[in-house]
Structures are given as structure tokens and as C-alpha cells.
Specification:
The chain has 177 residues and is of the alpha+beta class. It contains 3 helices and 10 strands.
Amino acid sequence: MNFEYKKEVAAGSVMAVFGVVILTLMATTYFPVSAKNTSSTCSATNPPADLYSGAPILGYTYSVFYNTTNGGILTVRAQQSCQLGGILPEIVQCTTKVGAYAYPSCTVGQPADEAVLNATADPSLRQMMTNGYINAFYVNVQTKLLTPYAGVTFSANYKQAYYNGQPITNGTRIAGQ
């Protein structure tokens, strides 16, 4: 009986060691020690002149900050992918205090009604960014895809956008915004 007990303890110990090894391998694969890539291959460089108009540019991540209530796009930011280390940038909101002392007050974190979308591989990113037609798109909150507002179309090279057949110019009001 004592021998059987020792045999079970030994088998359990071996299984426990294998379990720890497997968990360690999984943890280092899925949860790296550092979220940021500190590789020497990632160095700050001057962004290309067509970073936005030529989107997507290889090696850059395009983050779309949007309102989760209506999908309205607040801004788009492009950063070197290696600097982000596989995570999207945080939302930073800055306001200026009014009064005797005017100074910026910034908070980092995600407000309840804002989110960040990695739109680098979105099929509509090129259309939206070629000539800066951010106001002609929204983020579909169900599909998490960039979507042109109803009535918006583009020329073949995306250089001109139209709303209900009329060219979009500064001041064009698009329904749904």
C-alpha cells in the first residue's frame, strides 16, 4: 500500500512539473514581459511625407479614435508599429482650466463613450485617408469597420469624394454626423 502511494505521488509530481512547464511556455508566448517592443530594430525616424495620404504605409499602425455611441470619428493617428508593441495607443484627453491659472490638464484612459480601432487593414482606410475625407466616414460599431456615410462615393483614384453626387468641399454637411 505504501508503495502504491509513493507511485501516485511520483506520477502527480511529474504531471505537475509538466503542467508548470506548459503554463510557463504559454504565458511567455501570450503575455510577454514587456508590452512595448524594445528591439533595437525600432528606431524613431521621420515619418514619410505621404504617411496619411498614402495610407496604409508598411510598418505603421493607423489608429482611429471614435465615439462609441454614434461611430463618429474623432481623429486618426499613425505610429510606427514597432513602437506600439502590439497594443493600441491610449486615449489622452486634454482640457485647459479656466480661471486665475490657465494650464492644460490631461488624463490618460478611455472615456466610456470613446474607443480606439486599429484600422490599418481596413479596406476603406485608403479611401478615407487619400485626401483627408475623415468626415465622410464613421466606425460601424457592430462590425468595427470604417463605413462611408450614406450618399458618399469616390472617384476611381479616391482623390475626390462626392456626397449625393456633389463634390465634398470644406463645409459640406453630411447627414449622420
